[in-house]
Amino acid sequence: MKNYLLLCGGVGGAKLALGFSKILAESNLTIAVNTGDDFKHLNLKICPDLDTVLYTLANESDLSKGWGRADESWEMLGALKQLGGETWFQLGDKDLATHIIRTQLLADGATLSQVTQELCSRFGVQSKVLPMSDETVETYIQTKNRLLSFQEYFVKFQCGPPVTDFVFKGLDKAKFNPLIDLEAFDEIIICPSNPFVSINPIIQLEGLNQFLKLHPERVNVVSPIVNSQSLKGPTSKIMHELGLEVSVNSIANFYKDYASTIFVDELDNDQLDCLHTSGFKTFTAPLVMKSLQSKIHLAQSIVGFLEGN
Amino acid sequence: MKNYLLLCGGVGGAKLALGFSKILAESNLTIAVNTGDDFKHLNLKICPDLDTVLYTLANESDLSKGWGRADESWEMLGALKQLGGETWFQLGDKDLATHIIRTQLLADGATLSQVTQELCSRFGVQSKVLPMSDETVETYIQTKNRLLSFQEYFVKFQCGPPVTDFVFKGLDKAKFNPLIDLEAFDEIIICPSNPFVSINPIIQLEGLNQFLKLHPERVNVVSPIVNSQSLKGPTSKIMHELGLEVSVNSIANFYKDYASTIFVDELDNDQLDCLHTSGFKTFTAPLVMKSLQSKIHLAQSIVGFLEGN
């Protein structure tokens, strides 16, 4: 069995990570998660993508919302609202326990990697989940009028303001997580997450960026675009605003220096010729992951293709 | 109308403070609250006595428990427990909103006095409630085998270990809250709180200590002992352990350098002669405050006595 490294953002990435976690041995799977969305809110350290991956793998995620914990309650947030506190970021009572533990462990001197491994252990998650870096990288969205932090853009303004560019503060000083030994992986999977805000901060990190450019033959993209639309989130809206065609081709073009294979949904078969012309190997599979079975099936398809079965 | 300063611990003090708040104009009442029990827990700044006073005055306290908020839920604590977090200190979901706001405001640079006034305003509490000091004083309980922080003693060990002494860390560097101009008060009321752990840290503070010794004629004690028992909490247990008789006389003796008048319940009338011999003026009134009406009635009795009505 090959060793797999998943590069992963929030919801879409977490779904595929769950599929992989069900079919691979723990020792064959590492999941590196975007932390560019992390922020401090109400003095709590919140890592939205890590939490989404954690809750998804622990079978504790709210499947209807796509984020947060299942069977969540909102008593603290209600009390906070009554006291005039900031309530634009939805903090559920159960979710809060995660942030409180993380914030305390970090304050006690643990690294985010150590905290993440500790939380995985407490949630009973066996897979190796790690932050992309232990250094702070902060994703900002340049909109027409002002620079917004990612959570302001994503939650407070509901992805409304048109995007012109992205800023990753701290990226120049951050390194890809040294606990992840890149040479150990036969295949690197770029999950179907937002390329601009979820994956780009990961693949620009020192250490990983150079490695991907040297070894694009090991790197495989799972398209976040299906039937010329993004499955979830603002990917297609952002592509429009950046003047890009909303297509698998645009995704391949975005990753052209880093990857050699792209997984495409059957609904985008019309893109295959163009992808081949651009030098990509392609494999067609159903990319929509609504059920657990479809997540497992996609992971099986990818592994089957990459291992020549 | 005279100006009143209340020195106040948790539950007993908060009850009397509520009574006073119902009969005095806001400008005539200031409540200085013990902060020796304050502690940092799960990276949150928690001020149990200030919260009890705040919730009581805001009509938001859980009357059956005597602490915490009414209609409380415990979802975060349940999730924390599942994750192996520290759950010995009961943190309700609504209560948590208070701690989160306080912790954030302090982290943003506000003093505890400013935070307390802000919280009063947000809870709609008109009375002037202030911490005894903006400096940190930490109450420790010396037990036979080890020194326990107050919350460990009070909550974790349920006041079990026999007490031999008290340590107030930081007391030598702390000053009584300078926002409280002692000369402005005609009467100072020592509320029926635990003398050893709730009131002593207040009256030992630089500024207040000297003032009380110079002006004991302005200082009035409301006995926390009724019918030779403490109404709530470990006062009588601690008195036993310290080798003190559990009586109003022992309370008067504790405060003999600081106060000249003591309010005594009718059930302790047998103590009056001895109290007079010790130089105390006495006034007898029902001290048990179960209903709102009894709280108001006691405050009215005290004010009536002190204003010669």
Descriptive overview:
The structure is a homodimer of 309-residue chains. Chain A is α/β, with parallel strands linked by helices and 309 residues long. Chain A has one domain (4-140, 171-306): 3-Layer(aba) Sandwich (Rossmann fold). Chain A has helices at 11-23, 48-57, 75-82, 93-107, 112-122, 150-156, 195-203, 208-214, 235-241, 248-254, 272-277, 292-306; strands at residues 4-8, 29-33, 39-41, 44-46, 128-131, 138-143, 147-149, 163-169, 187-190, 219-222, 225-226, 229-230, 261-264, 281-284. Chain A has a seven-stranded parallel beta sheet with strand order 5-2-1-9-10-13-14. The first copy, chain A, has a three-stranded antiparallel beta sheet with strand order 7-6-8. In chain A, strand 1, helix 1 and strand 2 form a beta-alpha-beta unit. In chain A, helix 1 (11-23) crosses helix 12 (292-306) and helix 4 packs across helix 5. Chain A is globular and about 60 Å long. Chain A binds chain B through residues 42-44, 69, 73, 75-80, 82-85, 93-98, 100-101, 103-104, 107, 119, 122-123, and chain B through 42-44, 69, 73, 75-80, 82-85, 93-98, 100-101, 103-104, 107, 119, 122-123. Chains A, B: Pfam families: CofD. Chains A, B: Keywords: Magnesium, Transferase. Chains A, B: It comes from SAR86 cluster bacterium BACL1 MAG-120920-bin57. Chains A, B: This is 2-phospho-L-lactate transferase. Chains A, B: GO terms for molecular function: LPPG:FO 2-phospho-L-lactate transferase activity; magnesium ion binding.
The greatest inter-chain interface is formed by: A-B, 29 and 29 residues
> What is the overall number of helices of chain A?
12
For the biggest sheet of chain A, the summary is: 7 strands, parallel
Radius of gyration of chain A: 19 Å
**What is the total tally of β strands of chain A?**
14
Percent of residues in β-strands of chain A: 15-25%
Please report the first level of CATH classification, the CATH class of chain A: Alpha Beta
Return the average pLDDT of chain A rounded to an integer: 96
In N-to-C order, the SSE pattern of chain A is: EHEEEHHHHEEEHEEHHEEEHHEHEH
Keywords (chains A, B): Magnesium, Transferase
Pfam family, one (chains A, B): CofD
GO molecular function, one term (chains A, B): LPPG:FO 2-phospho-L-lactate transferase activity
InterPro entries (chains A, B): CofD (IPR002882), CofD-like_dom_sf (IPR038136), FbiA/CofD (IPR010115)
